[in-house]
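Running log. JK asked me to keep both predictions on one page so they can be read side by side. First protein, sequence followed by its tokens:
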Amino acid sequence: MSSLRGVTHVVSCSVSVERPFQVEFVDGEPTITSSAVVVAGEDTGCGPLTAEMSVRSEGSNRLAVTIPITNAGESAWHGTVQLQVGSTLIPITQGLISAGETHSETVVLRLPDGVSSFQGSLLIGP
């Protein structure tokens, strides 16, 4: 259980943000690609938060996905982070991220035999 006791300001996302990605396996090694269009001056919904993803093989049919989130704002952030792969939502526990800090979590996905690529989304929300 987490507590926000003592925190006077918490950054919150005004809407859920979705960042699509694709993972492909080339010679057994995973590669992640993502593209998102951001228009200058447009509110992305989560203000000063940035998220990067990386993937690495964890053996046969296992893929580690690491998601560091940086809070470049002046207030702490606490919200929800999920990976969506197909219709499956995978919650990522991030906890409170203080102003100017980065917090990283890694989840390991177990993939069906023969998967050569898949698509998903990183979801960050209020």
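And the second, directly underneath as requested:
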Amino acid sequence: MIMPNTGSSGRLIESDAFVHDGHLKVFNHHVYEYRKGLRHLALQTLPRAYGCWVMKRLDGLRVDYLVYPAGKEHINVFLGDRDCLEIVRLIGKFDLSRYTPQEDFILGIMLGYGRQQQFSRFLALFAQRRQEDADDSYRPGLSSHEPLCARKESPK
């Protein structure tokens, strides 16, 4: 469920203004970048113990977010634009390692990773998935992922 940005008064408690903990410094930096418009979506994995504090902080700042479990001891906190959060919600997988190459690509682009980096990552994940599928069952003939024809590079 996307937690709406309808928080309390929207004012920070003085003790929340500066945090010495490394996890929360990074979290505060993600919030800063989002509020300045430098990113549309941020993701941070945190120990579960930070969950209440993080949700209270985001409610107070009126920032939309999703919190998913990440194993037994951690949570994944997504914060940002409602459209991005809705896409993450629609993908519907808590475990990021279960994302398809396409879902991983979409998430990477929304998180602001470099496009070329995402292109290369997608191709590598897709090849890995194809190999895993081939190992599971050999199916001779044309793969559904191969075009019927493609322009061949001319020899130089």
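Observation for JK regarding the second prediction: Confidence is low (pLDDT under 50) at residues 6-19.
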